[in-house]
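Predicting holo structure, fructose -6-phosphate bound.
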Amino acid sequence: EKGGWNSFMAKEISEGPEAVENTMRGRLADSHVELDLGALDDEALRSIDRIVIVACGTANYSGLVGKYAIETWARVPVEVDLAHEFRYRDPVLDERTLVISISQSGETMDTKMAVQHAKAQGARTLSICNTQGATIPRESEAVLYTHAGPEVAVASTKAFLAQVIGQLLFGLHLARVRGTMADEAIAEVVAEMRELPAELRQVLAEQEAVHELAHWMADSRSVLFLGRHVGYPVALEGALKLKEISYIHAEGFAGGELKHGPIALIEPGQVVFVVVPSPRNEPLLHSKIVSNIQEIRARGARVIVVAEAGDAAVLPYADVVLRVPLTLPMLEPVLQVVPLHIFALELATAKGLDVDQPRNLAKSVTVE
Ligand code: F6R
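Done. Tokens:
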């Protein structure tokens, strides 16, 4: 039951810290990650030369975050595909390809069929799933359960965090097995991952600004989201959640794409959320996103930034600042996405909508 919360979505957002904790539990050693992937043993993981991630919706966006981490750490090329596009194509796959499916429910029809499609062509398969014993993990050679706990609200929130964590764990494991990352470097990431639950609690405790924003924006007709690098999937996820439960038109863009079209949408008063990487971690990316902010502000956009607590450089360019603690670049999405989830929830609530049962949507899409 909802345990005192007004909605399952609110409850599940509040469970983010435990979801992340439970996904990491028993899997973090000091300088490595312990994963038992059954048939995908070290030898199998050394034999692959490519990874394709298949998933739908929010799970697909978590895969985009996973791509950046896995490629950086394990030096294996990673593609991210929509399961329904993948299954109706003739993708190039062989026994050296690992197809990773990501699904909260483990029952999404298109994702299941993508796994079958991959198996039929001899690819190896790993399922990252939140539901014990579901169809997709049963169809896969190996499974990494996310242990986020049951997710009831149609809109996925804590499961997204756990999906990102699952891929970070896998990326570190793969990096060790393939010898692409020193123990000290893995230890540094592990140490930062251990901080995430406490940092998430801090983010959840400091969302008064989001609340005010959502009330102020309840009549908005369109909201844009901008990000770069791992902030790009965060922007896509922020936009999806807003469409899904508040029925407001929303789009996510990669910062570098602005000039290639989307900047034409900017008119005075247009609200744009910008996901900003920490300047301490990523000075170059930070300066690029600040340039993007200057470009849209010059055209009258109202800019709401999600920025790291110590980032003072972004202040002159923001109308509203939503703060998250400092972490490593690949871990940033886990914290940055939370204010966006809360924003969607609060805005839909301000509009008087049923956040748990948005119109036209089902929790698990088991038909086409
Ligand atoms: C968005 C949402 C959907 C699901 C998608 C995949 O909030 O919930 O986009 O992420 O339908 O579902 P699973 O992960 O169950 O395969």
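Residues 56-59, 103-105, 108, 111, 155-156, 240-241, 244, 364-365 surround fructose -6-phosphate (CB under 6 Å).
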